[in-house]
Amino acid sequence: QLDRLKRAFGHMRPSDLRPSHIAKYHDLVGDKAPFQANRELALMTHVCKYAVRWGHIDDNPCREVQRFPEQARERYISDAEYTAARDIAPLWVQIIMDLAYVTGQRRIDLLSLTRNQITDQGILIK
Q1: Are strands 118-119 and 122-123 parallel, antiparallel or unpaired?
Q2: Nearest to 60 by CA among 18, 96, 1
Q3: Of 11, 14, 95, 124, which has the fewest Cβ atoms less than 10 A away?
Q4: What sections of 1-126 are H helices per DSSP?
C-alpha cells in the first residue's frame, strides 16, 4: 500500500497535499477496489498524523475524506474448505491456521509469539 501511495503522492510536498487530492485518489481506487481504497486511506491518515506531529503540515487532509461503506463478512467456511486450504499451505501456515482455529487469536498475535510464551502448561497470550 505504501508503494502505491508513494507513486501517487511522492512527488508532492506534504504542505501541498489537499483533501481533494486524497479524495480523488480514494475515488479512483475505490471504483474497482473499495476495501483497498479504505485501507490505503487509513494508511495515508496515519502517515499524515505523523506529518502534523513533526510540523510538516498543520492539519490532516485525510480527515475530511469519507470512507466507502463496508459490510462485515458473514460466511463461515466449511470443514472441507478449511482442510483443502490447509492441505496446500506451507507447514508454517498450517501451524498458524491450526493455532488460530484452536485459540481464536488474531493472525498478528500468533505471528508475534515468542518462545518464552510457549510453556508446558500451554501458550501464554496477553
Answers
A1: antiparallel
A2: 18
A3: 11
A4: 2-9, 19-30, 34-53, 79-88, 91-103, 107-111
